[in-house]
Write a structure and sequence with these properties.
Number of helices: 4
CATH superfamily of one domain: General secretion pathway protein M, EpsM
Low-confidence stretches: 187-196
CATH class of one domain: Alpha Beta
Mean pLDDT: 82
CATH architecture of one domain: 2-Layer Sandwich
CATH topology of one domain: Gyrase A, domain 2
Length: 196
């Protein structure tokens, strides 16, 4: 007689298949969770590392900004000191300028010409006086033009008098020069051209 297997093997096989599927699904979920956790951990580590680098760059940038501010302040201080040195040098070169100016006013004054007023505005001089004749005024202008301490004589007013005291009242302008300053300027420009 043939043997009949009455055990519900199909039901058991289905149950086993379901269990295997459930185990596989849970395993897949656990594996996916582990991968997600690892990726999250890796990304957090990378973000943390990048934030540290960004903070380092910010700190270094702040240090450089502070150093740049100090350099600019030192540069301004240097410019102020250079300006002071230039003023001191100019004063040193022009120290005896007034003495030379009065000396040249006396040396350039020809006989028969008398000054009644001298006004100075910066480097410009206004000389008023009287002369025995207009030719003496022109001689005085030639003397001023030949002087190294005076330059650019220009006649402003010439009034010729008539009568027993014949002569001329004049007003002329001139520029005060300083050959020491010119030499210093020429030397500085020559040095600057040489540096270029």
């Amino acid at each position: 007689m043939p043997r009949i297997n009455l055990i519900p093997w199909r039901e058991a096989e289905r149950k086993q298949t379901r269990q295997e599927f459930a185990v596989g699904a849970v395993g897949a979920l656990v594996l996916a969770g582990a991968i997600a956790f690892a990726v999250n951990l890796q990304m957090s580590s990378a973000i943390s590392h990048q934030n540290e680098r960004n903070q380092y760059l910010k700190d270094e940038t702040a240090k450089l900004d502070k150093q740049i501010a100090e350099i600019l302040e030192l540069d301004q201080e240097k410019q102020r000191l250079v300006a002071r040195m230039q003023v001191i040098e100019q004063l040193e070169r022009s120290r005896a300028e007034v003495v030379h100016l009065f000396d040249q006013l006396v040396k350039t004054l020809p006989e028969g010409v008398y000054l009644t007023s001298i006004k100075q505005n910066d480097r410009k001089l206004q000389l008023k006086g009287n002369a025995q004749s207009s030719s003496r005024v022109s001689n005085y202008m030639r003397n001023i033009d030949a002087s190294v301490w005076l330059a650019e004589p220009s006649l402003d007013i010439l009034e010729t008098k008539s009568g027993s005291t014949a002569g001329a009242d004049f007003t002329l302008n001139a520029m005060q020069e300083n050959p020491n300053l010119k030499a210093g300027t020429d030397g500085a420009s020559g040095a600057a051209q040489g540096a270029r």
